[in-house]
């Protein structure tokens, strides 16, 4: 019995060992197949030595940096190759690696036949992020591939800054301004060119409003430098250039524009142009103009009154000047038939940020409804029109007790005066004379 148990245990261990061997064999075969597929995928699609790459018609040499392009420009990359195999769904990919971003372009899928030559043209935008150097080398990789085959070639391009280029980093303004108001335009500039920039002028304008102002921003160097370093340490290339530690490659300046008072509310384009003898650069921002408090505000508290015939009606006209300048206004009332309208002042000067009140007086002798306007002119231009209405009723009714008492006393006085006059005017009767008679 014990021998039988030992025999079963031995068979179990043999079977377990066999399973492990089978698993190892399976993994080995799978690894070979996967490795074979990788090897197959790594097979050349293009005939060795047949790949030619040109950048803007300049031929690149593998392992050598002998072609230069300008930062920020778009270049054509032409790839010519001879196929070494028959293959479908082939594509050509071109990649350029920069410090801050990688740029690539890929062709559409196409088929190739062995021993035939193909040409594909792709486009790349050269990176412009040369912050600390005037120029540098970038890697350019060209890949010709499908799922089974691949050919890859590596090249190097020299990328250097444009000779003269200024970058407008920002244009800062208030989000909205009022008509008649001055506002600042803050501009930040950076020299991203190969050379220093001298005597820069900045012009800010709103073309649709006819507003423009120019300011001098001075000089901007291409790279900030250290006087103790060599030219190549400062600039990356052995250029002959002055070095002043106080010079900056970025400057900020401010200039002011004034929106006309008659400007309509809306969104306007604000153009900023930077120029010197070597280069001109421009950019556009937008600014909102609000007329809610522009020009003058004419406020009439009462537009209609009712009075008796012959009674004067007084209207108040408040003129507000919210601008930063003194304004002079002319008040021109319009009279109607049977209505007389006058203003307490025909010309008023309202200081900046203040207001003044004008009294408008109207009187009519006959009953009826009278409509009239008061015109407010500024610089002989109509600024505002205020429409009034005067309702005229019958004769004035006397209701004031003092007035009534005065009238009663006046009447009594007149009656007494008449009585006195009558009494004084009446002649006295002659008295009879009785004399003595003597006989």
Q: Can you tell me about this structure?
A:
- By secondary structure, the chain is an alpha+beta fold.
- The chain has four domains: 41 residues; 109 residues, Immunoglobulins (Immunoglobulin-like, Sandwich), CATH 2.60.40.10; 125 residues, Immunoglobulin-like (Sandwich); 97 residues, Immunoglobulin-like (Sandwich), CATH 2.60.40.10.
- The chain contains three helices and 27 strands.
- Strands 3, 5, 6, 7, 9 and 10 form a six-stranded mixed sheet that branches.
- A hairpin with a 4-residue loop joins strand 5 and strand 6.
Task: Give the topology.
Layout: H1 2-41, E1 52-55, E2 58-59, E3 68-70, E4 74-82, E5 87-97, E6 102-106, E7 110-112, E8 117-125, E9 135-145, E10 150-160, E11 166-172, E12 176-178, E13 182-191, E14 197-206, E15 211-220, H2 231-235, E16 250-258, E17 266-275, E18 280-290, E19 297-300, E20 304-308, E21 312-321, E22 327-333, E23 339-343, E24 347-350, E25 354-364, E26 368-378, E27 381-393, H3 401-425
Parallel strand pairs: 3-10, 12-18, 20-27
Antiparallel strand pairs: 1-2, 1-4, 4-8, 5-6, 5-7, 5-9, 9-10, 11-13, 13-16, 14-15, 14-17, 17-18, 19-21, 21-25, 22-24, 22-26, 23-25, 26-27
Notable features of this structure?
disordered C terminus; 439 residues; Immunoglobulin-like; disordered N terminus; 47% strand; alpha+beta; five-stranded mixed sheet
Q: Please report which band the strand proportion falls in: under 5%, 5-15%, 15-25%, 25-35%, 35-45% or over 45%.
A: over 45%
Query: What's the number of domains?
Result: 4
Radius of gyration: 50 Å
Total count of strands: 27
- N-C termini distance: 220 Å
CATH architecture verdict of the largest domain = Sandwich
Number of H/I helices: 3
CATH fold annotation of the largest domain: Immunoglobulin-like
The average pLDDT value, as a whole number, equals: 82
Helical content, roughly? 10-25%
Main beta-sheet annotation: 6 strands, mixed
Structural class: alpha+beta
What pattern of helices and strands is seen along the backbone? HEEEEEEEEEEEEEEEHEEEEEEEEEEEEH
**Name of the CATH superfamily of the largest domain:** Immunoglobulins
Q: Tell me the overall shape.
A: elongated
Oligomeric nature of the chains: single chain
């Amino acid at each position: 019995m014990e021998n039988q148990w030992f025999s079963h245990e031995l068979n179990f261990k043999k079977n377990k060992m066999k399973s492990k061997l089978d698993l190892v064999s399976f993994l080995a075969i799978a690894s070979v197949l996967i490795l074979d597929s990788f090897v197959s995928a790594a097979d050349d699609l293009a005939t060795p030595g047949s790949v030619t790459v040109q950048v803007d018609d300049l031929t690149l040499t593998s392992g050598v940096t002998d072609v230069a392009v300008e930062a920020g420009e778009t270049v054509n990359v032409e790839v010519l190759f001879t196929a070494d195999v028959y293959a479908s769904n082939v594509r050509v990919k071109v990649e350029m690696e920069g410090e801050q971003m990688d740029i690539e372009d890929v062709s559409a899928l196409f088929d190739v036949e062995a021993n035939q030559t193909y040409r594909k043209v792709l486009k790349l935008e050269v990176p412009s992020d040369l912050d600390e150097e005037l120029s540098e080398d970038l890697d350019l990789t060209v890949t010709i591939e499908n799922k089974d085959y691949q050919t890859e070639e590596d090249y190097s391009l020299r990328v250097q800054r444009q000779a003269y280029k200024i970058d407008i980093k920002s244009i800062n303004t208030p989000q909205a301004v009022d008509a008649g108001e001055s506002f600042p335009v803050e501009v930040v500039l950076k020299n991203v060119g190969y050379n220093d920039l001298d005597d820069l002028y900045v012009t800010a304008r709103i073309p649709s409003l006819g507003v423009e102002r120019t300011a001098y921003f001075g000089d901007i160097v291409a790279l900030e430098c250290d006087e103790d370093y060599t030219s190549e340490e400062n600039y990356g290339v052995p250029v002959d250039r002055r070095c002043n530690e106080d010079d900056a490659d970025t400057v900020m300046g401010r200039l002011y524009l004034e929106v006309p008072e008659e400007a309509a509310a809306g969104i306007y384009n604000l153009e900023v142009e930077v120029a010197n003898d070597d280069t001109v650069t421009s950019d556009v921002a937008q600014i909102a103009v609000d007329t809610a408090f522009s020009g003058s505000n004419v406020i009439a508290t009462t537009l209609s009154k009712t009075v008796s015939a012959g009674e004067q009606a007084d209207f108040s006209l408040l003129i507000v000047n919210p601008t930063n300048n003194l304004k002079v206004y002319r008040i021109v009332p319009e009279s109607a038939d049977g209505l007389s309208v006058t203003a307490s002042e025909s010309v008023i000067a309202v200081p900046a940020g203040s207001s003044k009140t004008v009294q408008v007086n109207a009187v009519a002798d006959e009953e009826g409804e009278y409509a009239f306007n008061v015109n407010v002119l500024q610089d002989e231009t109509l600024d505002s029109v205020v429409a009034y209405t005067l309702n005229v009723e019958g004769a004035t009714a006397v209701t004031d007790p003092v007035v009534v008492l005065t009238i009663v006393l006046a009447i009594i006085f007149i009656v007494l005066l008449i009585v006195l006059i009558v009494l004084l005017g009446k002649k006295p009767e002659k008295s009879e004379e009785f004399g003595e008679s003597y006989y």
